[in-house]
Amino acid sequence: MTESGKAVAGVRTFAADVASGFLEVTHSGFALLGLAVAFAAIALTARPDLRQAGEEQLMGWLQARQVAVIGFPVEPGASERATASNPKDLPREQAAVAYWLSKKYRVAPEPLAVLVAEAYDIGARTKLDPTLILAVMAVESSFNPFAQSPVGAQGLMQVMTRVHTDKYEDFGGRFAAFDPVANLRVGVRVLQECIARAGSLEGGLRYYVGAANLPEDGGYAAKVLAEHFRLRQVAGGRAPATPPALVTPPTLSTKAAPDAAVPAAQPAAQKVALLEGV
Fold first, then answer.
1. Which residues on adjacent β-strands are paired with residue 154?
2. Which residues lie below 8 Å from residue 99, measured CB to CB, with a gap of 6+?
3. What kind of architecture, by CATH, is found in domain 87-276?
4. Which of 81, 227, 260, 261 would staple 222 via disulfide (CB 3.0–4.6 Å)?
5. Where are the domains of the chain?
6. Rounded Cα gap, residues 240 and 9, in angstroms
């Protein structure tokens, strides 16, 4: 064999050895990687806390990258946190009430659907007419969950948060006053106590507004009962008509009453004093 042939043969042998070694190393590397993955899978299966910690760390890194790219975090689950649902999923009676309130008070029907459904649910459990609960919300806050009066009544049902702080303990504390469902539930409890204390619906509404010991309540009870009357008609599939007049002098009945000519007022000092005793 010539010198050039020997050189070519040597190069081929060298290349073959290099290729064989590379394949062996690669095969061993993949085997080690496979073992590492299998070990990690076994460890994560046996230790859920490690898996959760890893997932949280990875999610935190991804969210940080997202904020860096678009300027704010994206929350795919934000819609689950919202107080809203499709009114079309409600029973016909509740849907009719939700759409009517939405139109009258210029509030989106989706959050109203949740409030109407909750009012019907809690009304069935507390033996209170759900349209009465909704009427109180309408008169108190016009369905503004962040409403606050000059004397500190807050949320949909305008509950005196500082007076009824204990009632919010089951919902995580006083800031739950601005959670629509929590405020509704606490407000219903306060309304129940007021009715029980007064012995009648109209008297309970006077307690609720803080006018139990006043000559008049500024038309508050009449306004709530008038709205209650209209909502009952809507729930029954009828167009709202003018509610019947309240007997004069006022009686402690549960009949509906007309809208008051004078806007409903909430006497500040009296409401604070009376609700502190509820």
1. 148, 159
2. 87, 109
3. Orthogonal Bundle (1.10)
4. 260
5. 3-70, 87-276
6. 103
